Amino acid sequence: MTLTTTGRPRREGPGPQRRPRARTAALRRLRRLGRLRPRRRSRPAPTPATARTRAGRQLHGGPLTYAVLALFTAGSLFPLVWTAVTASRDNMRLARTPPPFWFGTRLAENAGTAWTEANMGLALLNTLLVAGTVALGTVLFCTVAGFAFAKLKFRFSGALLLLTIGTMMVPPQLSVVPLFMVIAELKWTNQLQSVVLPTLVSAFGVFFMRQYLLEALPGELVEAARVDGASSLRIIWHVVFPVARPAMAVLAMLSFVQAWNDFFWPIIALTQENPTVQVALTGLGRGYVPDQAVIMAGALLGTLPLLLAFTLFGKQIVGGIMRGAVKG
Question: What distance in Å separates the CA atoms of residue 97 and residue 87, rounded to the nearest whole number?
Fold first, then answer.
C-alpha cells in the first residue's frame, strides 16, 4: 500500500473508471440539443391481457366515427336497396308521385319475367366464363410482364414500358373499328373469344404488378435462385408468384369486376342469341313503354353473383392484401 501526498492510503488495482470531463460535457450538450436521448430502463413485455386491453382501446371509436361510417354505409347500400324496391313493384306504381320507398309483392314475378325474356341463364354462364378467363389471363400475363420490367435487364425496357403506359391514354373508342374488322376476318362475331382475347392483358395490370414487384421482390432472391440453377419459368412459379400473391388477388378482383360490368365492346361483338349479362339487359328495355320494374329485376339478377362472390371470398382477399401490406 502506498500513501498519497495528503497521507491517505492509495488503492491499488482496477478501480471505477470515470469519464473525462470533456466527454461528459459533450454528452450533456447533445442531450440539451435533443440529439442524444437519455437511456431508459427497459420495460417488461406486456402480458396478453394488457395487449388485448390496449388493442381494444385503439379499435374503439367515438360516436362521430360511427355516425360517419353509418352514413357512408347507408349511401353505399341505397342503390342496391332502391333496385330491389323498384323490382318488387309494377310499372304503374313507379310512375306515380311520390315513388315507393318500401318493398312490394312482385319481386319473384318480375324476376321470372326478366329471366325468361333476357335469357339470363345463358347470359350469367357466358359472363362467368368471360370474366373468369379474363381475370385469370390478366393476372398471369401481367405478373410475368411486370416481373420482366421490374427485375430483368434487356434493351429498350424503358421505352417499352413507356409505350405500354401510353396505351392507357388512347380512348377505347378509337380501336373499335379496326378491332371489329379483325374479329370479322377471323369469323369470331357473336362468339365469346371475341370478347375474351382483346382484354387478356391490360396496361394498368402490367404497370401495377411492375410497381409492386419492384419493392416486394428482392433482387438477391432472384439471383440466389439463378445460382441454384433455376430456370426463368421455375423462378416465376416458385419465387415471383408467392411474393406477388396479394397484388395478384387485388388485380384479379379488379379485372373480374371490370369484365363482368363491361358493356361497350360486348354489345358490338355479341348479340342476344349469345349474350353476356350487360348485353342481355338491353333486351329488356325494348318496346314502346319499357317496363322499368322488369329492367330493375334483371339488373338485380345480374348483380347478385358479384355480391355472393364478395361475401364468400371478401375476407380472404382482404386478408391477402393485409398480409402483403405488413410483409417485411
Answer: 17
User: 166, 119, 157, 167: which is closest to 274 by C-alpha?
Assistant: 119
The CA distance from 55 to 62, in Å, is 15
Number of domains in the chain: 1
Dump pLDDT digits (tens) for 41-95: 555 555 555 555 454 455 566 788 888 999 999 998 898 898 889 888 887 887 7
How would you label 272-290 residue by residue, b for 16+ Cβ within 10 Å and e otherwise?
eebbbbbbbbebbeeeeee
Domain for residue 136, yes or no?
Answer: yes
Asked whether 325 and 246 are in contact (CB, 8 A), the reply is: yes
Residue 223, domain CATH: 1.10.3720.10
Q: Which residues contact 109 (CB under 8 A, 6 or more apart)?
A: none
**CA-based nearest residue to 279, from 296, 294, 260, 292:** 260
Helices 107-117 and 63-87, axial angle in degrees (round to 10): 60
Entry pTM: 0.74
β partners of residue 3: 9
Task: For 128-151, write each residue's pLDDT tens digit.
Answer: 999 999 999 999 999 999 999 998
The C-alpha cell that represents 91 in the structure block: 310499372
Is the residue at 147 inside a domain?
A: yes
Minimal CA–CA distance to 88: which of 100, 72, 76, 96? 100
Range of the domain at 165: 73-325
3 sits in which H/E element: strand 2-3
- What whole-number distance in Å separates Cα of residue 207 and Cα of residue 138? 12
Least confident stretch, 35-44, 202-211, 294-303: 35-44
DSSP result, 138-157: HHHHHHHHHHHHHH---TTH
Instruction: Judge whether 27 lies within some domain.
Output: no
User: Does residue 280 lie in a domain region?
Assistant: yes
Q: Torsions phi, psi of 306, nearest 5?
A: -65, -45
227/180 Cα distance (integer angstroms): 48
